[in-house]
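Researcher: Good morning. I'm working through a list of sequences from a screen, and I'd like to move beyond sequence-only analysis. For each chain I'm collecting a predicted structure so we can compare shapes side by side. This is the next one on the list. No need for commentary yet; just the structure.
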Amino acid sequence: MTATIVALGPAGGRGRARDVDRHLGARLRERRIALGLSQQELAGKAGISHRQAHGYEAGAERIGAGRLFALARALGVEVGYFFEGLGSGGPSRLTARQRRTLELARELAGLPRRQREALAELVHVLAGTGTPAA
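Model: Good morning. Structure tokens for this chain:
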């Protein structure tokens, strides 16, 4: 039997753990914003405090398995959603374009239904895809 030596950083592996926490927090924030939810609304849906939601999104607090499951249910995704892109070399960072898209999604979610539908129709026409099926 051979032993494998794993080189840990000065924090004894904590650096990688914190990268995972930041990645999960970034994915949590992306999904929350895409749904047009505030941190308070997310906290209410997941049964946590606003401070906890903020800490999770910042990567300052670790998310336990049960809590991650509750957050996934509150956001309408599978638990695996939070881990997508994790092996790509570090915590995900939004590009300026992705950030603008998320902000636009949040603003659209706040509009009344008729205005959202009218804007969606306009976007389809401008994109040359015609109008969406009713």
